[in-house]
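MODEL INPUT / OUTPUT PAIR
PAIR INDEX: 1
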Amino acid sequence: MEGTILIYGATGYTGKLIAKAAVECGVRPILAGRNIEKVKAVAEPLGLIGRAFNLGASAILDTALRDVSVVLCVAGPFSATARPMADACIRNRVHYLDITGEIDVFEALALRDAEAKRQGVMLLPGVGFDVVPSDCLAAHMKRRLPDASDLKLYISLGDDMSRGTAKTMIEAIAAGTRIRRGGRLVSHDRAEAGSCDFGEGERATFQVSWGDVATAFHSTGIPDIEVYFEATSAAKALVRMPRLVKSFLGLGFMQSFLKAGVDRMPEGPSEAARRAGRAILVGVARNDRGGSVRSRLRTPEGYTLTVATALDAARRVAGGEVKPGFQTPSLAFGADYILSFSGVTREDL
């Protein structure tokens, strides 16, 4: 018998998609957010229970989680929501999942591994497109080349994004490009250019700060890790931005201005765009003896995959598939977990 799942952030673009998909497959989650009227607008048409609460009051959080087994947090930016929700989950022995792709959130939750284990709680961030497919690919590369010392992940996806994702990217503007070197996170002012064959010839790529810089290290132990995006217009604009401009855009008043602009964006890609979209990921691992392996993963569009993986992960955990402590998707469910989803294929090149 499955325990009860609470989806926090259910009034956002991704939250609404997950709530609808849950009902369609017979799951009855509790929906939650900050505003009760907005929560009801999503919950009532689906015949679900809705709750509203902020994350700032411990007693209120404890009450909200009193009958919950698993929290799936889909309210970003997770720099603001992950810590208070994880605090409450650990305190109340409730398993914590989210769909973050934020490096600092992964690292902060990893530091709470021992604390979570003492409470028998699993902390499993990144159960969406960030980072299920790429984390499983990283684990597969490690399996193919056990002594790998360098891992590069290349990702090709469209420009469409939700408001929450856009706000997360805005927060990251001033942080520089982050990579893993010798097991440590380091930041570069300028992104490296590269190229990758995603299946139709070489395409230009740019180095980006992506969640796998954190999670792939925890999953594989590979000390040097970099992530690259195909050089779409959005990626080019972000990585080519001069450091001075990035610093200016990182100031508080500019962050507020940019986020206000995001609030005028469409919520996210249309259903037609999600149905037509796709993503391609390529992993390249090398060892110190000159050996290398390459694999390619094809998946549905990012938000479509996020709905599937986030809901599946929450159901597995609610059903008792639990490893206490900090986990990544591949540590929790295995390197081949991503292959259990419709529309996903992997080939070793």
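PAIR INDEX: 2
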Amino acid sequence: MFKRIYNQRVTKIFIAVLYAVLFAYGYREFLYGAYEYAGFSIINERLDNSDFEFYTFMIAVLPVIFHNGIKQISSFISVFIYYILYIPIVITFFYNMEGDQSYVMFLQFLFMISMSFLFLADRVKISRSFILPANINPFKVILVLTWISTAYIAFVYRDSLKFSSYEDVYLQRAATEELGRNIFTAYLGAWLANVFIPISATYGLFSKKKIYFFSAVLGSLIIYMSTADKQILLFPFLIFGIYKVLMKSSLKNSFSTIGLGLIFLMIITLLSGLSIFSALLWMRTLGNGGMLTNYYHKFFSEHQQTYYSHINVVNTITQGYPYGNYSLGQIIGREYWSDDLNANANFWATDGFAAIGDAGILVSAFILFCIFLVFNKISVYYNKIFLICILIPFLGTLMNTSLFTSLVTGGGFLIFLFLSLKNTIQNPYINENINDNRS
């Protein structure tokens, strides 16, 4: 009885409403109160505009109507986009976007169409096969690449390896920044973190082969000692925790479970007050997406758009990128905060507003929709929990960078290629969809 109610659409809508209301409260009482200097401002007139506020909450919840459970892997990714990006963007625009109310409402409406569109990706099926022949064991290749990449990073940073405390991470990053500027080192380090480590850790758990998981832990440790990247240090353990939880649960309840989990964390941090954890949750995880999207819109409404020349391949052909050697994140950081800040932002901000303005809200969502269709076809052969675990780092890059950056630097393309190999598909540890009956 409870499980049936838990997964009903009305329950999802209730959870979405509660999440949106809590985020709005947290924006007013926490983000605005503690981090107004960072850009979490409020236009005072909006606080008394109940009609606009009701419209905002309605727009925030409407896409849930199109969520149809975890039928394909795109459904799971879209749930995270909904909670971490979509709702914060819609509500932040209500509080903090300058301009005419009807214009802001129009932009919120475009975001609603885009989010609904992403939820619908799992309803579309393509017949073409993406299976590639392979005469090797792809997992052994990944293991060897994990070793080689770890050894290379350790060698490059050999004189600067240090296990930094939380307070010293920024000092360590500044001290080793120049070492990672080489393009080969930058890409290899990114692929180690976003592709080799998650695949090794996840396959080690599914196959019960400890050497894979331990290799992933070692790789994460070396990256942390090199660049003080806290989240990469946690990747293997986060994957382990998600693996343990999901193997005992039903994926069809993911929308409600993820929503309630975030709601629980929001309530705890709001009650406990300002702390390192509350700052990480509210400012870095939940708040940044909406705030940065607002600033990207503000900047590129007043300055030249890139017309996708921020993508290296496009710029190589057109030579049309208008901001020299500065990336989009650096441009926004220098304009609104400091010369040292790289304000990377999500696909709606970069492939949307920065590229072609307001129409980019829909265009960037359509590009991601097409990526979803291909990925859904590739991933149909796999255990969904395996896919979720290996995609954790990719999800992080997808939430914070351009779609094209997340595919290349974030390793999305390599993951897609790896999953397309015939020998990967035929691996008995990961192609038995034991969770499908529960999804």
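PAIR 2 NOTE: Residues 434-439 have pLDDT under 50 and may be disordered.
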